[in-house]
Amino acid sequence: MKELHSFSWYAKHVKKHLPKDAFKPVPARLFGGLAYLLITVTSFLLIGLLNFHPLINLLFSVVIGCSFAGMGFLGHEILHGTVVRKPWLRDTLGAIAFFPLTTGPKLWRKWHNMEHHVHTQHEENDPDAWPTLEKISKMKAFRWVYRLPFSVRAFFSFASLTVQFTAHSMKMFTMYIKEFKPKTQPKVWLQIALPWATWISLIFVMGLEKWIFAFLIPLLIANFIVMAYISTNHRLNPLVPVNDPLANSLTVTVPKWVDVIHFNFSYHTEHHLFPGMSPKYYPLVKKHIKEMWPERYHEMPMGKALKALWNTPRVYFENYELVDPNHGTMYGSLGYGLDPDNVKSKTVSTTPKNTKAQE
């Protein structure tokens, strides 16, 4: 096993090469969010007030969905404190940015900032980590799912990206609501109930058909865009006992214009080293990481990462392998034998803690 280091260990070595401005908030990022907000409101009004052909409304749906996703990426940035630092302003702006994705700022900061970032790819403590074979063997529903052919599971797994962010947000709400102080819980409830109440009430204002084009289809599109990134952030990486961002995270590459409209969300390893730094400076962080630890750093084009996800199962076996319980086939993870250009499997005995590969 490779020696693992904490994110603070890496950050200490990289920080001395970065300008002081890299650690200051960048309020100018809000102009991008304002553009998305204006596009969304304008598109809503056009759909609601005029009677376009369904194909025209579908084009508006795509525009709104892309705007929802862009606002979500900015909301993620805002709630890390890299845009503004005042807590009340940070949470207010974060609530607006995440409003389309129906996720409240207090829940997000608890689930994402305090749990996922602190325990990234930890088998037990990361709420976003995918399960181990030992865990799913105890879940009847999952055992049934994994009897389906691999290609069928891959198809439905990708189709589910259209709802995964919303569904996982609801799961995180039920998981963490009791961990908030009693006086804070009503705010957390309000932050999840208000967006849903707003969006559902629009059915009665716009009518069901227009609402589908204005909100439902855009929500599915936004979920897919956001989850296309999130699913590649860690799901090809191993589970690790030490929060080592170069082992547990993947940076994907996209065209530069996509990085602009998605606020550099593709730089995920860099984000886990410096979550409190504006993504504006992540290209510089990436440069230094690649100079210092080129053999540890994981990056690949988004398309290749998604293809690798399609070709590998999402169940971990002894942390460093991905296993298909249906056929007893095992795949490596990044840094542990997975070649995204040539994904190969081997047949194994899937008895936990007693693995014997069979050539």
From TrEMBL:
Cellular component annotations (GO), alphabetically ordered: membrane
One Pfam family hit: FA_desaturase
Naturally occurring in which organism (per UniProt): Pontibacillus marinus BH030004 = DSM 16465
Keyword annotations of the record: Membrane, Transmembrane, Transmembrane helix
Regions that span the bilayer: 30-50, 56-76, 144-167, 188-205, 211-230
InterPro entries from the UniProt entry: FA_desaturase_dom (IPR005804), Fatty_acid_desaturase (IPR012171)
Organism ancestry: Bacteria, Bacillati, Bacillota, Bacilli, Bacillales
PANTHER family documented for this protein: DELTA(5) FATTY ACID DESATURASE C-RELATED (PTHR19353:SF19), FATTY ACID DESATURASE 2 (PTHR19353)
Domain of life: Bacteria
Keyword Cytoplasm on entry: no
Alphabetical GO biological process terms: lipid biosynthetic process
Domain Fatty acid desaturase positions: 58-300
GO MF term set: oxidoreductase activity, acting on paired donors, with oxidation of a pair of donors resulting in the reduction of molecular oxygen to two molecules of water
The keyword Transcription regulation is annotated on this UniProt entry: no
Stated name of the protein: Fatty acid desaturase
